[in-house]
Design a protein that fits this description.
heterodimer, A: alpha+beta, 2 domains, 4 helices, elongated, B: mainly beta, 12 helices, 94 strands
């Protein structure tokens, strides 16, 4: 029987990173970060850019980004708890002038339904 | 505003490279992906790397793998890119291009997490191919051939595993058993759910073997075993009969041999002794060499050390894994070992290199082996080694690479005809300032002094069949000098040339006789020594001469033309006469058509601004066939014949055609097509070359006829990869030139300039720029030009490195530790090379890199460089862990006694992890002393963050310190705060000023337009952008417009709407009242983005400049991958229409090679707006002729008109 829910579930299983109604902000942030890291790994000029900022080899930067895909936003929150935790989104900001890689911590307060 | 984008200098960095036999046969080629372009390289016999083919693909190439079907002689190339497609290419030798054999779509485009393309692996027998994404997806394609031996590809078989990150994949060599692919995988599903962090800590990487069952057409996970958690790279080990099969797993600090049903064999990667303890050693690139009897691996670490890895095995049991230090060279992104005994090293940054093997590191003194692996309680015992100079490799060629361009300025500091481009390139010890000049590099072979100012020079052979020239004849005001060419060039007197008169022409006539034309006659010197002299009638003198092998035409004063023809006996006979209306300015014969003896056309240029084509048919009697009027009297004429070509080594198809080139007295080169039958002229093009009338000479370049034009600078017109290119030579003004061919130099040019005779060759054809490099110490960050002295002030900084003194101390320590060997080495450096086996080359930082320090240590220096003498006049190393990030010159308005000062923004103890922190920021103010050659610190002012942007503004200094914009004035002991604005969102990275406006670039939030009100001493933001932009470069275009580039590779222009701008300027409060209201959490006015373009590469610098004298400005940009590009604003609507239609047709008829849709690529982040892609338009000549005609018809033009348009617009830029 046609079931829109099962179809959605199928989509979510097929396309990692697809959001759903019950998604919490942690999951969202994890997805965003994994997508970002994959994009950095795929775009060589970007890897080179970070490598210059950190004075590391491009190969090392690629490896670091892959390692970070495991736990991009730190440990997941406790389940079924009132979640008014602070979420840390790690963003890579690179300044044009100095190639100083600025890791900025942006604090976002979240309510989870 | 519409812009035309053109890449001036293709990217030179390398993303990945692979070796294969793409042309077919025995030769091996290297295929190199440079991000957006794909190049095919091959080392020639002399070890120079030659580019066979280069193509722009309009997409990001991420992986390349060559494969060969069994029994085939030729390799195919599989390309993984961001197109969501797998593309298989085949190189066509005939047409010199890559052909797309297959294009299989499997997913969305873009570099996505689960869309394959990041990794490619192929079964060593060429039966199957795996393409994988960073996460989850892996697809396997079965490769086969059909009845007509063409490559076929199956539909994809899935080998997906959800919640799994893939680190590397490779094809396992298992002979002709079912193909197996190995992958390093990490499952994160548990870690995502476990809040205690235990699962994440225990997450384990696995080595998984996927087997493709060819019978069932099904992929299964055959074997999966935990492996070292530092694993990052897999290298396939030869199998079948050649080796034990299986894989080498490269992990942080270890190399491990793994195979099914085989215990792991592990060895430690040796460490440099000076490496800090917390740092691991990672393998970043690998190459395999296999011969019939043996195989070995070359693995390079992230520090540049290359290790040779060998396996001791019996059958398929591996007993020992040995790691031996091989050599050290700069870190590569790919290495290729060629059968001819070369190693191609594609550097991550800076020049690439080709090495030749002198040895293969035989010998038993291995640094590390699985046999002596020591495990203690703290883990495995590390093994140390000391790097040394190259012992097994010898450098034979370098391929220059600008990667990364850190900063750039277009300027004419040397007062040359065209501006130079000053770029800061490279990283760490390999960084440099490179001065680029548009034009070809020349190699000067000899310069010799002549007795007086020479007016002309010729070279002649003694016999038509000779390979080399015999005489060089130099004409002076009243004499002629004859030199013989042999081992040396020396004066001779037995040549029978008349040396008491100037010469007008010297040439070889017929088979073996020589001709000298002087003002009073023609001297014909026969091979047996007889001399025939023809004298001019009456008092007339010869003014101009034209000749070829059998025909001579002279013009007498007054305009009389006399035409001579050589008869069967080798006698020069007067054949015809013609009277021209006035004096003749120049003469030229058309080339002799194949199979004929005589040229059919003579071109005559007259002072009445015309060029006439005369027929030389005996029946026509020098009848005028066509007349072309030109803008100024012609000075010189030359016919250039383009032979019919059907591709081959040199590109596109084109029919034979004949061009008449004329150098006009107003400095214009005029080119027109000559109909080979009727002599009619059509399709004219002209180009301004310089201030002097161009003189045209024929010469040979790569065995083809080319044209040398001598105006106020020399130019070369030649055909390269199917295009006719007219490029300046980077050389001084020349008077007269001739081709030169001798033993030492096959395709040279001899020229006279004043009283000097110069012999040179032309190098690196096809390149737009030639470069001179001046080495620097650390990664250059920025520079400013000191306009008065024409010096550069450069700031250089490196993270994680020791200061110069510490490095020196370390080196001494290391020398002492090594004792005699190293000392003896330095002592014997001068007479080195005699017993080269034992002696190592001296260790240079360029080769080895700086020793790594803790990551929070910085080194930095400020340098004053005189680019002309290439001399560093001042070098200040910053102390106390400070690093310079910004620099500007500033004139404080009321402190005139100091004059121009240099402001440098520095940060102390900057760290990025785990959080960006800085101990303090400083602004140093330096005074110029010693006539601007040196710096003296006036004072330094502490600030609370790193000043990333500095700029002079109304006699004060504006500084962007973190998110604060502050205005400083100069005080006695420090800078004095005058005014500040703290309302910027993140970090200010660029400041530009114009009148009272200040244009601020934010690291993450694009541009903010500010105003400074002097009377109220207030800085306020009146406009900002609506789009978050991670700025990497910014440039001020006009009062309302800024050009910017973001880190995702987009260039955009932001413009304040005209009415808003007017409103603000007219408002007495300057929009301040409104500013206080604000809009959308920002400024009240918003800028519009009027231009959007995805470059596909991180743009690091932008500048508005003109590269040609008298040309309009274009935006020049440099990128991290080492490319330079330009954006030119169109001046007419008509051109916009034409090029946008051409672009549209090109998109339809010629989709990019790697499967990415062109429009989608240029709109990767923002829809492309008002920019026409010149790189795509310039692929028009590479289309087949019928396609060209089809597109031309659609545009209501002819293909040659389109080519002319393309040429014209390129000439406007460069």
């Amino acid at each position: 029987m046609f079931n829109i829910n099962s179809q959605l579930e199928h989509l979510q299983a097929k396309y990692a990173g697809t959001g759903h109604a019950d998604q919490n902000s942690f999951e969202w942030a994890v997805n965003i970060n994994r997508v970002s890291y994959a994009s950095y790994i795929g775009r060589h000029p970007m890897l080179a850019y970070v490598a210059i900022a950190e004075n590391e080899s491009i190969g090392r930067e690629r490896y670091n980004f892959m390692q970070k895909m495991l736990l991009p936003c730190g440990q997941p929150p406790e389940r079924d708890e009132d979640l008014s935790y602070l979420l840390v989104i790690v963003q890579h900001a690179l300044s044009s002038s100095c190639y100083a890689l600025c890791l900025q911590k942006q604090l976002v307060s979240v309510d989870v339904c | 505003m519409f812009l035309y984008s053109l890449t001036l200098h293709r990217a030179t960095g390398v993303v990945c490279a692979s070796i294969g036999s793409f042309v077919g046969g025995k030769s091996q080629e290297i295929v190199v992906a440079r991000g957006k372009s794909l190049d095919l390289l091959r080392p020639d016999e002399s070890g120079k790397v030659v580019t066979l083919h280069s193509v722009e693909v309009f997409g990001a190439i991420r992986s390349l793998v060559p494969f060969r079907l069994t029994g085939s002689q030729k390799d195919y190339l599989a390309v993984g890119s961001d197109s969501g497609r797998l593309v298989i290419l085949e190189y066509s030798k005939e047409r010199n291009c890559f052909d797309k054999v297959h294009q299989e779509t499997f997913g969305k485009s873009g570099c996505r997490r689960i869309v394959p393309g990041q990794f490619l692996a192929v079964d060593p027998k060429g039966r199957a191919l795996m393409v994988a994404a960073c996460e989850k997806q892996k697809l396997v394609y079965v490769l086969n051939r059909d009845a007509t031996a063409r490559l076929t590809i199956s539909s994809p078989l899935e080998a997906h595993k959800s919640y799994t990150i893939t680190y590397s994949i490779t094809g396992v060599d298992c002979g002709f058993d079912n193909p197996i692919f190995a992958a390093i995988e990490l499952d994160y599903s548990e870690a995502d759910r476990d809040p205690t962090g235990q699962a994440a800590a225990e997450a384990q990487k696995h080595l998984t073997f996927y087997e493709l069952d060819l019978g069932l057409n099904h992929v299964s996970r055959k074997w999966s075993e935990p492996i070292d958690n530092g694993a990052n790279l897999l290298v396939s080990v030869p199998g079948g009969g050649d080796g034990p099969s299986g894989v080498l797993v490269c992990a942080e600090n270890f190399i491990i041999y793994r195979n099914q049903d085989h215990p792991e064999v592990r060895a430690v990667i040796p460490r440099r002794t000076d490496l800090p303890e917390e740092r691991g050693v990672l393998i970043v690139s690998a190459a395999t060499h296999r011969q019939k009897s043996m195989f070995f691996f070359l693995l390079q670490t992230e520090y540049g050390d290359v290790f040779k890895v060998t396996l001791e095995h019996e059958g398929d049991r591996v007993s020992e894994l040995k790691i031996k230090y091989f050599d050290t060279f700069p870190v590569t992104s790919a290495m290729c070992v060629l059968k001819a005994g070369y190693l191609f090293a594609a550097s991550e940054f800076g020049n690439h290199a080709l090495y030749q093997f002198r040895a293969i590191g035989d010998g038993d003194d291995v640094e590390s082996s699985s046999a002596n692996l020591m495990e203690t309680e703290e883990g495995f015992q590390p093994v140390f080694f000391q790097p040394r100079g190259l012992r097994n490799l010898a450098l034979i060629d370098q391929i220059e690479s600008l990667m990364p361009v850190m900063d750039m300025r277009v300027m004419n500091l040397f007062d040359e005809e065209t501006p130079q481009i000053f770029t800061l390139c490279g990283r760490g010890p390999r960084s440099s300032v490179r001065i680029l000049r548009p034009g070809l590099a020349i190699n000067e072979m000899a310069v010799s002094q002549l007795p007086g100012a020479a007016s002309a020079v010729w070279t002649v052979k003694k016999n038509v069949n000779d390979e080399f020239d015999a005489y060089m004849v130099v004409s002076f005001q009243n004499a002629t000098l004859v030199l013989s060419i042999g081992e040396t060039v020396e004066e001779v007197s037995d040549s029978k040339f008349l040396d008491t008169t100037p010469s007008l022409a010297v040439a070889l006539l017929g088979e073996d006789s020589l001709m000298q034309v002087h003002p009073n006659g023609i001297r014909h010197i026969r091979e047996d020594g007889r001399v025939n002299e023809w004298r001019t009638p009456g008092k007339k003198t010869i003014v101009k001469v034209g000749s070829n092998q059998f025909q001579v035409v002279i013009a007498l004063s007054g305009g009389e033309l006399i035409y001579f023809d050589m008869d069967m006996m080798g006698q020069l006979m007067e054949a015809d006469k013609n009277e021209m209306p006035g004096d003749v300015a120049c003469l030229a014969f058309a080339p002799i058509p194949e199979g004929r003896r005589r040229s059919r056309f003579l071109a005559v240029g007259s002072y009445d601004n015309t060029i006439r084509i005369l027929s030389l048919d005996p029946d026509d009697g020098m009848q005028v066939l066509s007349v072309q009027s030109v803008s100024s009297p012609p000075e010189s004429l030359l016919f250039l014949e383009v032979k019919a070509s059907t591709g081959g080594e040199d590109g596109a198809d084109h029919p034979a055609s004949l061009f008449l080139n004329a150098g006009l007295q107003n400095g214009v080169l005029f080119r027109t097509v000559v109909d080979m039958v009727t002599g009619q002229l059509s399709d004219t093009r002209s180009r301004f070359l310089g201030l002097r009338a161009p003189k045209l000479f024929s010469c040979m370049v790569r065995g083809r006829q080319a044209m040398l034009c001598l105006s106020s600078r020399p130019w070369l017109g030649y055909i390269h990869q199917g295009h006719f290119l007219l490029t300046p030579l980077s050389y001084e003004t020349l008077e007269y030139a001739a081709s030169f061919s001798s033993d030492q130099c096959a395709e040279g040019i001899v020229a006279v300039a004043k009283d000097q005779l110069r012999v040179f060759t032309i190098e690196r054809l096809g390149e737009t720029f030639n470069e001179t490099a001046i080495p620097l110490r650390y990664t250059p960050r920025r520079f400013v030009v000191l306009p008065k002295r024409k010096h550069l002030a450069i700031i250089e900084s490196d993270k994680g490195a020791f200061t110069a003194e510490e490095r020196e101390a370390l080196r001494k320590e290391c020398m002492e530790a090594n004792g005699v060997g190293e000392n003896g080495n330095t002592g014997a450096m001068d007479n080195g090379g005699e017993d080269g086996e034992e002696r190592d080359e001296p260790m240079t930082d360029e080769q080895f890199g700086y020793p790594k320090a803790e990551s929070d240590k910085w080194v930095s220096c400020i340098r004053i460089l005189d680019p002309k003498s290439r001399e560093t006049t001042c070098l200040l190393e910053l102390q106390d862990n400070e690093a310079a990030f910004s620099v500007c010159t500033v004139n404080f308005h009321d402190k005139d006694n100091h004059g121009m000062l240099l402001a440098v923004g520095t940060g102390k103890g900057l760290t990025f992890f785990p959080k960006r922190t800085v101990e303090a920021g400083f602004i140093h103010i330096y005074k110029f002393v010693d006539e601007g050659r040196s710096l003296e610190l006036l004072h330094k002012t502490q600030v609370d963050d790193v000043p990333l942007a500095l700029c002079q503004f109304q006699g004060r200094l504006l500084a962007g310190i973190g998110s604060v914009l502050r205005l400083y004035d100069l005080g006695k002991k420090k800078l004095l705060r005058k005014c500040e604005n703290k309302l910027f969102p993140r970090t200010i990275v660029s400041i530009h000023t114009y009148r009272d406006r200040i244009y601020i670039g934010d690291i993450q939030e694009s541009f903010h337009y500010c105003k400074y009100r002097r009377d109220e001493n207030q800085l306020y933001i009146f406009a900002d952008d609506t789009v978050p932009r991670w700025l990497t470069a910014a440039h001020h275009i006009d009062f309302d417009t800024m050009a910017g580039a973001d880190k995702f590779g987009n260039i955009y222009f932001a413009r304040l709407p005209q009415d808003t701008s007017d409103e603000i300027e007219e408002d007495p409060t300057g929009g301040r009242i409104k500013w206080e209201q604000g809009k959308l959490n920002g400024a009240p006015n918003k800028v519009e983005e009027i231009v959007q373009f995805h470059v596909g590469d991180v743009v690091s610098c932008l500048q508005k400049a003109s590269l040609i004298p008298g040309g309009g400005d274009s935006i020049i940009f440099g990128t991290v991958m080492g490319s330079l590009g330009a954006l030119l604003a169109f001046t007419s609507r008509e051109d916009v229409d034409f090029f946008s239609h051409l672009e549209m047709h090109m998109r339809q008829e010629h989709p990019p090679l790697c499967g990415r849709d062109h429009m989608a690529f240029r709109s990767a982040f923002f829809p492309v707006k008002d920019v026409i892609d010149g790189d795509l338009c310039e692929q028009f000549p590479t289309l087949p002729l019928d396609m060209q005609r089809k597109i031309a018809d659609e545009l209501d033009r002819t293909p040659s008109e389109i080519l002319k348009k393309l040429e014209d617009i390129r000439n406007k830029i460069i």
